[in-house]
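User: What would this chain look like folded?
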Amino acid sequence: MNTLKAPKTAEEFSQYYQLRWKILRQPWHQPLGSEQDDQEQYAIHRMVVDEHDNVLAVGRLEKVTEQQGQIRFMAVDDNMQGQGLGQQIVNALEQRASILGITEICLNAREQALGFYQKLGYKKQGYSHTLFGDVKHYSMTKNIPVHAQHKVSESQALQSIWHKTIPLSKAMNLQISYYDTTQLVTRCDTYFNQNLHHTMFAGSIYTLATLTGWGWVYLMLQEQQAKGVELDGDIVLADANIRYHSPIKGLAYAQVVQAGVSGNFDNLLQGKNARIKLTAHVYCGENIAATFNGSYFILPSSQ
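Assistant: Here's the prediction, encoded as structure tokens.
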């Protein structure tokens, strides 16, 4: 049985790149290594493997602007053509793009692949370039709809609160990319928040993580109120620490998942402070670039 996954280990990436080179570079006598570029560590990678972990298909998503992504380096093993593996890769990258707030995907399709992408809803925009002397490429685009599970109204309400009450959040262009009660994904303008090294400023990373954690607590309170539970309070950060693991450049976002949260709001029902502990990760591509651990108090509104 075939499996769709993201490469994680050095061995998996080695096989991932090997197929990319074999299909996209070797026939034109390009050297090993020419199938990679300087965006690999900042991108989203997907591959399909068989039951023996042989890589059958690969593809990559990278950020072009805050709301536009690009699919590149799509490749399917010659012996597996026509079995829907390429479509699996594209669908997976589109799903990930929608969670990250990307609303349009562009790509440069080889001439023989135009029909494949058109069947998937991509529109031909015109000639792009010619590679290796005779491989013509054409620009194509597709609008990516809002993810079906994304709670739009709740997210917009929280964004409005941030931008109206915290000027820094508006300056950073802090946005909610995805929320479904089990995870919250946020992003900000990485170009605005760059330092002199053209990577994301550490203070902006901390702010993004802090507000993502605060936003999670706020949304959980709203969920309780929607169920008829009379809970209300002021959310404050009581304690926090952050570890920076690697620079952030390119596709950056923060995420809180339900499994990384502990505590409840029971004390609020008794007029006491409630405490929520959580972990927020800030990602660069699919790599954790920073880990934030915070404790938030919810103070009863009467205090």
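The first helix runs from residue 10 to 24. If you want, I can go into more detail on any region.
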